[in-house]
Design goal:
Blueprint lengths: L1 H16 L8 H19 L7 H5 L4 H22 L4 H15 L2 H4 L8
This protein binds magnesium ion.
The site of magnesium ion has 4 residues, from α2 and α4.
Amino acid sequence: VSDLNELRDRMRAFTDERDWAKFHDPKSLVLALVGEVGELAELFQWLPADEAAQRVSAEPLRRRVGEEMADVLAYLVRLADILQIDLAEVTRKKLENSAERFPAADVHGEAPEKA
Ligand SMILES: [Mg+2]
């Protein structure tokens, strides 16, 4: 939780120091987030699925994947800040909800029919 709050505060300061907050309406942030998810997906696009983990474990792809994941997280954290959503808290609640919906004993080793 404290790590997410620290990232939120640093993103806020970074934005304010550059007077960029005026560009950070929720719609623009969602589009920026989707763009970064696209950049992450592009790195995996033509990798054979059964080789992806191994290839990403090696440089330079490992560094590139980490950078795009950081971009995704940064925009997600910024969006949550703008919308005053406690990202850690809602994620905790979602995880608790999923644990109730999908008891381990019922679904162990099976993909849920609807996630
Ligand atoms: Mg990027």
